[in-house]
Amino acid sequence: MLRDPHLIPLSRQHHASLALCVRMARAAKSSSLDGAWWQSEFRNHFEEMLKRHFEIEESVVFASAREQ
User: What is the 3-state secondary structure (H, E, C) of the chain?
Assistant: First the structure.
């Protein structure tokens, strides 16, 4: 089944967030982990992408699902 085209941006944001988590997990296993850099990276990711992403999910996606 094809997803609704309106959901594609949210799906891409999920993918980008999961990719960031994988990169963070790999960095945590390495000996060159820079915690301050990763904290900044995640904060930027949240502010630039996830904050609005969660707002859209709450107000549009979840609201629509409740109406079904």
Answer: CCCCHHHHHHHHHHHHHHHHHHHHHHHHHCCCCCHHHHHHHHHHHHHHHHHHHHHHHHHHHHHHHHHC
